[in-house]
Structures are given as structure tokens and as C-alpha cells.
Amino acid sequence: MKLLKKLLSHRRVRIGLAAMGVLALAGGVVAWQAGLDLADLKAGWDQVNAYLVKNPWALFVALVVLPGLPVPTSLLLLTAGVVWKEQPLMACLLCLLALALNLTWTYWLAARPARRLVEKLLSATAIQIPELPRGDHLKLILVMRLTPGIPLFFQNYLLGFLRAPFHLYLPISILCTGVIGSGVVLSGAGLADGKLKWAITGVSLIVLGGVLTHLLRGWLAKRKLKVESW
Prior knowledge:
By secondary structure, this protein is mainly alpha-helical. It contains ten helices and no strands. The chain is globular and about 60 Å long. About 25% of the residues are buried.
């Protein structure tokens, strides 16, 4: 309860909840204006769910591609948990693999063609893209991954553009996002299948991920790194 009160006391959390409420209200108004009701929405989801169950490759491709766009990754992971509810552990493994592939292609897209294009545009000017000191690579990755409010796709592109070492970028990124991500998948699977153990396990992983993030942010703060406070 104390942890929940602490989270709710943060301005960013309150703003996020308010934004979600506004979006939900706006979606409800749009659905009402379009003449849709809960039965229509349920029927539409049932069709989508049936297609994804029969074509799991489509959901896997979506998990690899869409997080590289302004699409909420948590919503995709929750969908994966619901669709693959029969095999929750396999769902977690597939989501982690898809996440690793997404982290890879977004990084190299920014590190190679995007950076070369920017360097070509800047070649006629005196402006140069700064090179990160070797000792700052780990710090940058952790700061980006642990600072709340920064979209995942933006983190990937920025870290790739600044060419943080890939051998550090990939494992640290998976560790920072994989715990909470797996919790979201298991929570979705447990709620969809009515199995309390998976739902509890998922929520526990989400809480664990939040605690670990808090501890790491404290560790970074002690070293006087610029980690934006909530």
C-alpha cells in the first residue's frame, strides 16, 4: 500500500493516469458517435483474436516492428499475453525474442543510415556530432532506460544514433525492459485465462521491476548522474 501511495504521489504518474482517462473518454465518445456498443467491440476483438491465434506469426511480426513506431509497447505485450494465454511462458520467451529483434533493428537503423545522412547534411557546416567518452557509455544507456516518460522507440533510436556500444546496449536494454515486460505478458495471460497464479506472478514481476528501477535510479543519483526525478 505504501508503494502504491508513493507511486500515485508522483506528478508523472498522475498525469499519465489523467491522460489515459482522457483517451478512454475520447474513445468512448467516438465509439458512441459511431453507433458502436460493447457487443460490437467484443465481436471485433473476437475476430482479431481468432486471426492472431491462427496466425501467430502476424503478432510476432507486430511485436518486432510496431515498438519502433509511436505504439505503446505495453499494449502489444498485453495483447500477446491474451492471445497466447494457453502457453504463458512461451509467450514471454517469444516477446523477449521479438523485443531483442526490435532493439536490434532500431539501433542499427539509427547508427548507420540515419547517422550517415545527418553527417552528410552537416558536412558543409562546422557542426559535428559529439562522440561519447568511453566511460559514459554505460551511464547513458542506464539513464535512458531508467528515466520514466521517454518512449521506447525514441530511446532505441537515440542510443543507436549516438552509437552506444551494441554489446552493452542490447543486454542492458533487455534486462531493464524484460522484467516488467514479462510481467505484463503474464498478467494478460492470467486475466484472459482466469488463472490467478499467472496474474499474481505477472503483477509480482511488474512490482519487482519497479523496485529494481528505483534502486538503480538511486545508485545513479549517488554518482551525480543527471537522472530526471519524478
